[in-house]
Amino acid sequence: MASRTATEDDIPDTEPDLVPSLDDLLLRFDEGSKRAAARLISIVEEGRPEALAILDRLYPRVGGAIRVGVTGPPGAGKSTLADRLVELLVRAGEKPGIVAVDPTSPFTGGALLGDRVRMGPVANHADVFFRSLGSRGSLGGLSLHTAEVADVLDAFGCSWLLLETVGVGQSELDVAQKAHTTLVVLVPESGDGIQAMKAGLMEIADIFVVNKADRAGAEKLLEEIELSIDLKEWLGWRPPVFLTEARGGRGVEELHQALLAHRRWLEEHGMLQQKRRQALESRVRDLVEDVLHRELWQNGTLLQSLRDGLDTIERGEDSPYQLARALVEQGRAALAVRRALERGHPREPKG
Ligand SMILES: Nc1nc2c(ncn2[C@@H]2O[C@H](COP(=O)(O)OP(=O)(O)O)[C@@H](O)[C@H]2O)c(=O)[nH]1
Ligand SMILES: [Mg+2]
Q1: Among all ligands shown, which has an atom nearest to the Cα of 73?
Q2: At the top level of CATH, which class does the domain 60-269 belong to?
Q3: Ligand lying nearest the CA atom of residue 103
């Protein structure tokens, strides 16, 4: 898409009563309207019923973007670093996007304006797409629909996608599964080095960044990390460690080069294919579980049995384990009946 300046069209409209038809939105999306993209993302993020149809329709165009997970403790400078990287990528003629998970953003992802301020001039660049998602209570997490939102941006033509997490936790494993390259950002203060190893970041990091190189202890942390890396045996890619000063942009070009090098390495060793497959598996599993979960609990009888069961447990007449087993049986039977009905077969009498 040709470079152009940001227009009013680039500000996402969140007024539900003005929502145009889906075909209309998709058409404008195809024409490169950021506003249409923002609306489609909202639909996907909110998990609205049309979401699956949208994703399905866009899927053939998904897969071009280089996906980089940016993770590390709060305050490490992930956002600042992501901004600098985006600036650099724009200068290199790329079309980058950032999907950030923001713990404070409300349900509708309304943190966008705040983050535009954060992003400064970068956010208003026509070739940058920025999206902030609510973490939905999954503390430290990537939002539930991060991968889907990234897919929409991928189909929109973003060539790089930075997926920024809130902090470090279980969800960082998710990032590793959803990104091609995972950046772990640490800072000299608060003994991050040791904590990183405890949190298992060594297992997910493709590249380590020691940010705030202007602060005391940066070199020492870098050495600590190098030492920990040396303690492990690396058959393939050995994660490099970089010093950066995100605020001033120092070390960002080197980081960019490292990202490209990792990308090449993945391609040359058939790992990109493997990572894509891994991500695909995790995605399809999520989708299946989501559907089964919803179908199961949509069943009013099952919910009633659950509540009745709770009474029984409280009276000391049953245990949670017995109840769970009974509910699983009941749920399975109900799903089997439903399936039979959907196929148009009469229900088999129980013998
Ligand atoms: N001294 C110093 N401060 C930095 C540097 N990079 C980021 N910061 C500051 O650290 C704070 C947290 O940065 P932010 O990017 O929001 O961290 P995040 O929570 O990991 O996204 C902000 O006040 C930044 O200005 C740096 O290289 N040196
Ligand atoms: Mg941040």
Answers
A1: 1
A2: alpha beta
A3: 2
